From TrEMBL:
Protein name: Glutamate--tRNA ligase
Family: Belongs to the class-I aminoacyl-tRNA synthetase family. Glutamate--tRNA ligase type 1 subfamily.
GO CC annotation: cytosol
Function: Catalyzes the attachment of glutamate to tRNA(Glu) in a two-step reaction: glutamate is first activated by ATP to form Glu-AMP and then transferred to the acceptor end of tRNA(Glu).
Organism: candidate division TM6 bacterium JCVI TM6SC1
Amino acid sequence: MNTVRVRFAPSPTGHLHIGGLRTALFNVLFAKHMGGTFLLRVEDTDIERSKPEYVASQLASLEWANIVPDEPLVYQLSRINEHKQIINRLLAEGKVYKCYCTENIEYNTHIDNELNDQTFLKYNRTCRSLPIDHISEKPYVIRFALPDQGIIEFNDLIRGPIAFNTHEFDDFIIARSDGTPMYNFVVVADDAFMKITHVIRGEDHISNTPKQILLYQACGYNIPHFAHLPLILGPSGQRLSKRDAATSVTEYKDAGFLPAALINYLVRLGWSHGDQEVFTFQELVNYFSLEQVGKKSGIFDIKKLEWLNGLYMRQSSAHELYNYIRQYIDHLFEERLSTWSTRQIIELIELYKSRTHTLKELINELIAVHDKITQISDDDARSWINENTKEHLKTVQKSFELLETFTQENITAAVKQIALNLSIKLITIAQPIRLALIGKSSGPGVFELCTILGKTKTVERIQELINSL
């Protein structure tokens, strides 16, 4: 059996779509599960739409998701001379032909009785009968001389047998008038060059497959296996758009989603292994098979992704999350968090990671604690501030100033003693302290916050609230 070789081949006409990332993941998992090879090809022959910045963006997104090819990256445009050589060979063999009908193309209407009397508008093949050595000054395209083959059938590894009638197709163009080859041709030429054994891609490519099979046959290449993945749809059941959610990988990276969480979510959006929801990457490799990929399109659910990302954040160490955050908001560390030590930030991450769903939410909490919300909400004020609060806070402030070691244990003991001396519930004094520290009554443990902020900052913030009462 030949070694499995698969590829992911994005076109650099925009940022990497999350559907593209899922396709890349399915290729990687299949290759690793089968002990095969994963390759990456940049399909940059559309010179007008392909941009270097999109190449860089797509490669960065793949690297962020830890998707790295097993062999050097292939740029399709770098093989343009090889493509032209193959076309010249096909011209010499009479399998393709020059078509000078670039303007005022005439079409024939074809009615196919085998296809329930469906009507197709087809090029009338005016130039197909021209001799190979015909010379003209007019510009021309290269058309494929479609054989009267009848039915083209292939066994899709996800969908089963799929058949097309060649009567549905035109003598399709494989090279433009400027000599640049068209998509279906270069895909076949490059997949053959890269010795691809399995083509795993989105179902929107199903209609390209019969044309590509004909080209494989014409060129004398081995035909790979095909597997067409279901699409990702928005909640409305239409193709996922920006109205439903972010669509590019960069947007999810910038929003603070962890790569492992996004990978887990996207793979599960179309593939399943029993009822298991959460997988390590190695588990995905071990369990993955194309037989478990569904035919039905997956519905993208941002809330489920946020839940899953929150789970991954809780399972990550504070040090890991700190390193991720430094990648995204280094400028904020310099501008807003420079007065804090790494230890303080990591300890705050440990406090807040179970209360947030994305790194962006976590960052916002860190900044909120650092800057402190000075305007306490009316609800919090009504609930926790009364005529005695000012004196209670003064007592706490004096007690804190007397503590030689500002540890959580000593802070807790001091506040409990104050509550006991004043004959009040602990929460009656603890909540105003929290309001002084972070400006709101909800949040992590108040004594932990005091410890992390340190004695000087804690006393200063209590004084600020006292001054405002």
